[in-house]
């Protein structure tokens, strides 16, 4: 962290050595701090990674019972909202996907776990986390509301009153923003799965 | 990044996520200021400029250093170190080139450049995934929000001096209660977004 | 022993860092919306204040004046980062809900002042000061978190005490924090003047 020499043209030799000494001491302090932190991180990073997947692993058997869940490597587009995809495998056959998606809520984020079958239809939805202030967002953590998503595919729209057609769901009154956010997250998940399947089909056709 | 997203970020930074009334940053600066509206505005401008500049710096640090190398755990130390060093350098530079500026600001430069408001802006831009322009916009408007808050407050405090306040609430208590009421008003901005 | 008690009384009550010296307010107001968050943040605060105080008082002789502030801040940041890592690994939910306010502990006035005192003190005093300051802060955190979570959400430590329909949601917001703090401050001032009178009589 040396000062640019252009600003201080007239430094005597001893001032220069003092400056060097000061910079070196600061650098030493910072480097030792960084080293200790890196060591601590190395020790804990495995636990941190396990925590990140723990939520999803706990929820998946509930929304999509299967023998195994294999993480799928997926190039997430910017702002797609999808954070992870797992393939649900039973008896060696890929039955569908479990997707975790985030979406911006009133004052925070909602994270959902969405089970999507191979026809890109939603099977079940569960809330993973709601980061906004308590009270409002939690209202969407309701079986009746989330159950509306089951069996729907394509782009789902959230409407305020009664549903007009099969691809609509009704928002929870008093929690419109959160309901919209949940709906967005589900749409992100379904879109990601159809994109994934499309890519797989292209690869299949190419090979 | 589009014009709409820039507008959305700027409105969000100044209203919905106002540095003082929504995110509760910069409380020390807030409670210290008992001078005139003018000196409050001066402090506010200084803090706003620091926030804008440091937001870009922290975006750059995240872009070039933290994200590519996966050093998220060093984020706090890096950002604080950078802020302190830049503060020191600016102090030296200002003392040589424009010492009157420091007088005008009324409070010490370190306090203005390294406080919860600036570090808060740095942290938000570092974590947010904004690009450089968006980070600059965020820092700038967050700073503007802080400036508005601190000036608004100095004006309110002046009014409070002439009001009849119950003895037990005089001084800082009524200041905080008033701040709470203003924050309540700001809650009305929550959820504004064009995206 | 009497000196220690007097010292503690002074740091925790009469010169309580948040209520009297107005330090460390930013994280305090933002974090105190639930008991778990508040208490764990308080524990982190005590940890950071004591550890950074000890380290600073140990190395202060070796650091040239020019970079004293920088080194103090880096030390505080270091211990905050340690706390962050530990929370992230063992209590990830709390880590997520504390969000950016844990790092802000580094630059909040409380860490600053603690560093200042530690510079001139011996290791023992520095540790004790950090502990005392932290305890005062922690006590206030507990009080505020208790009120805000119970009356704002109807829960305590996440367990429902009464239905949230009877709760004042505003207490959970920043506005609520400011309002509550203002009232607590007023009551505290009364308490202090009462205690002072008692001591004089």
Description:
The complex is a heterotrimer of chains A (207), B (195) and C (201). By secondary structure, chain A is of the alpha+beta class. Chain A has one domain. In chain A, 42% of the residues lie in helices and 25% in strands. In chain B, helix 4 crosses helix 7, helix 7 packs antiparallel against helix 8 and helix 8 crosses helix 9. Chain B has one domain. Chain B is globular. Chain C starts with a helix and ends with a helix. Chain C has 8 helices and 2 strands, in the order H-H-H-H-H-H-H-E-E-H. In chain C, helix 1 crosses helix 7, helix 3 packs antiparallel against helix 4 and helix 3 packs parallel to helix 6. Chain C has one domain. Chain C is mainly α and 201 residues long. The mean pLDDT of chain C is 87. At the B-C interface, helix 2, helix 4, helix 7 and helix 9 of B face helix 2, helix 4 and helix 8 of C.
Question: What descriptive keywords fit this protein?
Answer:
heterotrimer; B: 195 residues; mainly alpha; 9 helices; C: 201 residues; two-stranded antiparallel sheet; 8 helices; 72% helix; globular
Separation of termini of chain B?
11 Å
Please count the helical segments of chain C: 8
Show the largest interface: B-C, 49 and 42 residues
- Secondary-structure-based class of chain C equals mainly alpha
Q: Approximately how much helix is present in the residues of chain B?
A: over 70%
Instruction: Compute the CA-based radius of gyration of chain B.
Output: 18 Å
What helical percentage do the residues of chain C reach? over 70%
Any chance you could write out the topology, listing elements then pairs?
The complex is a heterotrimer of chains A (207), B (195) and C (201).
Chain A: H1 13-63, E1 68-71, E2 82-90, E3 93-105, E4 108-117, E5 122-130, H2 143-147, E6 157-159, E7 168-170, H3 176-206
Parallel strand pairs in A: 6-7
Antiparallel strand pairs in A: 1-2, 2-3, 3-4, 4-5
Chain B: H1 3-16, H2 27-32, H3 37-69, H4 75-97, H5 99-105, H6 109-113, H7 116-128, H8 132-161, H9 172-186
Helix pairs in contact in B: 1-8, 3-4, 3-7, 3-8, 4-5, 4-7, 7-8, 8-9
Chain C: H1 2-14, H2 25-31, H3 35-59, H4 68-90, H5 92-98, H6 109-120, H7 123-153, E1 155-156, E2 159-160, H8 174-200
Antiparallel strand pairs in C: 1-2
